[in-house]
Amino acid sequence: MNVSKTASSTAGLSLAAALVLPAAPAIAAPAADSDIHISEIAYTFSTDFIEVAADPGTDISGWTFGSVTRGGSVQAQENTVTVPEDTTVGDSGAVAIDVSITNSVKAGSAADGEYGSSAFVIDDDGELVDFQQIGGVVDGKGVTGTKNTFTPAPVIGQEAEPTGATAASGQSIQLTGDAWKSAAPTPNALPDSSDDGDDDGDDGETPEGVTPIADIQGTGDASPIQGKTVTTRGVVTAAYPEGGLNGYYIQTPGTGGADRADGAASDGIFVYSPDTVADTNIDDHVEVTGTVSEHYGQTQISVSASGLKTVDEPAEAVKPVEDAFPAGDEKRESLEGMLLQPSESLTVADNYNTNTYGEVVLATGEGTLDQPTDVHRPGTPEAKALEAENLDREVVLDDGATVNFLKADKDIPLPYLNKEDPVRVGAQANFTSPVVLGFDHEKWRFQPTTRLTGDNAEAVQPTSFTDTRTETPEAVGGQVSLASFNVLNYFTTTGDQLSGCQYYDDREGNHITVRGGCDARGAANVESLERQETKIVTAINKLDASVVSLMEIENSAAFGKDRDDALATLVKRLNEAAGSEKWDFVDSPAAVPSDEDVIRTALIYQPAEVAPQNESTILDDQ
Q1: pLDDT for 117-176, tens place per residue?
Q2: How do residues 429-470 score in pLDDT, each as one tens digit?
Q3: Dist. CA 616–CA 593, nearest whole Å
Q4: Cα 211 from chain centroid?
Q5: Which UniProt keywords are given for this protein, alphabetically ordered (predicted)?
Q6: I need a labelling partner for 618 at 20 to 30 A (CA). Which of 11, 154, 325, 538 fits?
Q7: Phi then psi for 217, rounded to 5 degrees?
Q8: Are 173 and 45 contained in the same domain?
Q9: Whether residues 250 and 353 fall in one domain
Q10: CA 62 → CA 125, 414, 520, distances in Å?
Q11: CB 466: neighbour CB atoms within 10 A?
């Protein structure tokens, strides 16, 4: 544990033991002559601290600073610290104490009322001085402290007060006036509260009248009025009553179109409102009242059941922003929450999460996204520059939902997938209808205007994809062709031959592939293995390369068989399908490492075109 490096008191003292403190009553009130409270919480990738504001000279020696997870318990011993002796509040009226914020929460990512943490301070008499929750809804229900090995007794059973604020990447949340805001960390220094953002209200808390969406968004990467209660109006451009988003986007009437100033504040915003989303329809003109916050880096307004009103007066239609989708956060920030019609095609760069979360990664500019270390040596400036460029070019085409299809909704057809329009890396995504630009889980996202599934794709899917699949690979010239092929855990030792295996199941509960619990990695049973073999055999025979390097094939020696048993089986299946002895495999060497894995690589070849020279060698020292 260290007192923040800019603090005046001694740093570098370590916490020797877990805290055992006496039980406390309900949240204790600060001393009458001193309003001691948490004034800043930092949880960035480079620094974590909790700051308290108090009268200069206040002695906080022996006090406890710490944080709890979303479940209300202290995660580990490192998440609480005892302040060293002779630590006092400096002339600034604030002192910051370094302490690890729990739950691996980092500013700009998972830092909200559901996934965030709560910071607490306990004085040397065992009284709970303050307990503040990152995110949540102001005046709503906060996290309740729960008992475990590391949670101090005064926290147990007490409820944190939601700040309603989360921090943008690299920033902290700070109490400015009567509201929490995101800003650059200022340890041991209180923010200037001369301007608390309430210029248009008499009571200093709730603005009078309607606040334009652009004023809520601001031109930075976080709202300038986080934690404030606002009333705003807009036209509903997208609504998600199902699928987990639990809200809708609204945009200022008449905004959008082609003539949009660079760097302007966004005119769209997400309204998080499970209570009212079912009562909204696209094109409704609505007025909402709720609390402003940042959720995973996206500005939103949290609206209760009473916070939605339909506006009777007609509204000018929202126009999609029609332009090439920009690269980089700065330009995209000015479009957050707005309706877009990208004017240029984007390239499919990744489809790994399509069957899990209904996501397709797209890339702006020319071509796909190269792995930086495929092009440059790891750690070099060139590799780092390409990594940054990839982040600037990337955007996720989403499905208007947060569903993990591997765990839920298995009866719903997956979005974006069909036999006629394959989503392949390198294909072009062409936008046929508008999308809304959102930000979530550290990614910019194109959201369809309502939840997309395979059932409603004809009406809802905003893109089409060019079919880049050819019947056979293009000719590459030369006398010998080389290829690589991932057989994706081709194991002839199926899960049902072993004990302890756990499985991925289909919708009817049938075991399909091994998930864990045993050494098998592939098919659960013979039926699944036959399906896998059919796909592999068809693809490799059509590939028709002279030599094919195989990845993720079973090392049969791990199951008491010849090391090449599974490899020989695959070659046999290839030849049966080819109708001749078209393929052979390179035998394993006589000497193999003693610590081999259950999975391996292998080589197969066409004897009519090439032949191995000498015995094979396993390169385990390269």
Answers
A1: 889 999 999 999 999 998 888 888 888 999 998 999 999 999 999 988 887 666 788 998
A2: 999 999 999 999 889 999 999 999 999 999 999 999 999 988
A3: 13
A4: 30
A5: Endonuclease, Hydrolase, Nuclease, Signal
A6: 538
A7: -70, -45
A8: yes
A9: no
A10: 9, 56, 54
A11: 16
